[in-house]
Amino acid sequence: MRGLRRQVRSFDTPARLLMANQFAINLGFYMLMPYLADHLAGGLGLAAWAVGLVLGVRNFSQQGMFVLGGTIADRFGYKTPIVIGCTLRTVGFALLGLVDSLPALVAASAAAGFAGALFNPAVRAYLAVQAGERRVEGFALFNVFYQAGVLIGPLVGLALLALDFRAVCLTAAAVFAVLTVLQCRALPDRRPGHAGDSGAAAGVLGSWRQVLGNRPFMLFSLAMIGSYVLSFQVYLALPLQAHKLLGSGGQAVTSGLFIVSAVVAVLGQLRITGWVRARWSGPQAIVGGILLMGLAFTPLAVSPDPSGGTPSAVIAVALLVTAVALLAVGSAVVYPFEMDTIVTLSGERLVATHYGWYNTVSGVGITVGNLATGAVWGIADDSHKPWLPWLALTATGLLCAVCVQLLSRAGGLAAVTREPALA
Fold first, then answer.
1. What sign for the dihedral angle of Cα 218, 220, 223, 224?
2. With helix as H, strand as E and coil as C, how does the chain read?
3. pLDDT tens sequence across 264-310
4. Low-confidence ranges of the chain (pLDDT < 50)
5. Taking the CB of residue 12, how many other CB atoms lie within 10 A of it?
6. How far is residue 266's CA from residue 262's CA, in Å, rounded to a whole number?
7. Between helices 250-277 and 2-9, what is the axis angle to 10°?
8. What are phi and psi of 415, to 5 degrees?
């Protein structure tokens, strides 16, 4: 912990504010979102299709609008979309606890989602510019704060549920309201670092054409889709496995999986990044991390049938926890180098727009990957081949790693250089 404080203090005030802000953003988000579906279905009695609509609108208004959020950041500066995004999420989260009609819930969900599309690319572009040559270290620290919010948020939300769901929503909204005020007062305005980088002269479509015409960046974005499909399995395949192993008791195990994943990142991110930087280049780190993410699912292919008794069930759960831990380590290896590579491939111009497009491509990839994972899961159940989804996910990781490696060998990532180890 002392080392973490020393590393944080080595960055300037705006960078430290961005890290603390991301913790607060995730604290507010994760204290509410894990419990929203249950509130909509159980508390308000909405039909399953209506619950899916509300949740789907939030996801689409965020994933589908990342490009717009990044473009706004490059045109008007990074502070503006961050503040507006936090304001919108304050309103959206408050409404989710105060309204009960479907149109109002859809509007609140859309506001909360678009808020994320506004501030996410801006925060990452701001940090990239502010950290300068220390981007990898900056993003490693950023992920520690990010995951700390993921870890603590659901616990705070669970405690507030003892009152009611309205208390959860209003508390989450209050977090974003305070964050909005603090950022208005304390976060310096920051604009893109290069002259002519705002994209104002070329216009929105012109800046988008620049990004879409950046062949190495687009190839990298496509190559990395598999890593996002793997990361998302903590929300899909791994909870399904927990339910398969323990039935209704799988919900508690699922909560534990999120805790394991976040703890690995919070406690291990700086050590992992330091170890990797001392030995590997940026592309090697990304390839190695993705390979580990894919191999994380391999132990589940030999998971015993829990109906074989308590020992089999214990081994099956242990393998599940092992898979989550390995997936978290692999993600921790990849993340800071991945974020740095995006900036490098952008040529440090239109950085937020590049982040916006990158997030949109990965969001589409996650949607397609989820459909494919669900289909493979169904085939595995019908054919009594429980190992099939896990081998398919492992193969996804291997394919993704090969694509990044080929791109690197072809010179597509040649500008990404090895940096000295962390202090």
1. negative
2. CHHHHHHHHCCCHHHHHHHHHHHHHHHHHHHHHHHHHHHHHHHCCCCHHHHHHHHHHHHHHHHCCHHHHHHHHHHHCCHHHHHHHHHHHHHHHHHHHHCCCHHHHHHHHHHHHHHHHHHHHHHHHHHHHHHHHHHHHHHHHHHHHHHHHHHHHHHHHHHHCCCCHHHHHHHHHHHHHHHHHHHHHHCCCCCCCCCCCCCCCCHHHHHHHHHHCCHHHHHHHHHCHHHHHHHHHHCCHHHHHHHHHHHHHHHHHHHHHHHHHHHHHHHHHHHHHHHHHCCCCHHHHHHHHHHHHHHCCHHHHHCCCHHHCHHHHHHHHHHHHHHHHHHHHHHHHHHHHHHHHHHHHCCCCCHHHHHHHHHHHHHHHHHHHHHHHHHHHHHHHHHCCCCHHHHHHHHHHHHHHHHHHHHHHCCCCCCCCCCCCCC
3. 999 999 999 999 999 999 999 999 999 999 999 999 998 887 766 77
4. 195-196, 201, 416-423
5. 12
6. 6
7. 60
8. -75, -15
pLDDT of residue 423: 38
* Identity of the amino acid at 11: F
Round to whole Å and give the CA distance between 68 and 356.
Answer: 7
pTM: 0.86
The residue with tokens 């090697």 is 284
Position 390, amino acid: W
**Ramachandran region of residue 384, left (φ > 0), alpha (ψ -120 to 50) or beta?**
left
Residue carrying the six token digits 């391999």 = 298
The two three-digit tokens of residue 277, written as one number: 């930087």
- pLDDT digit string (tens) for 164-180? 899 999 999 999 999 99
Distance CA 207, CA 407 (A): 24
Determine contact, residues 342/223, Cβ cutoff 8 Å.
Answer: no
How many whole angstroms from its chain centre is CA 366? 11
Helices 165-186, 79-98: crossing angle, 10 deg rounding: 160
Q: In this structure, what token pair is assigned to residue 400?
A: 């993704």
Q: In angstroms, what CA-CA distances link 256 with 144, 145, 168, 221, 390?
A: 18, 19, 21, 31, 20
Cβ 116 vs Cβ 89: under 8 Å: yes
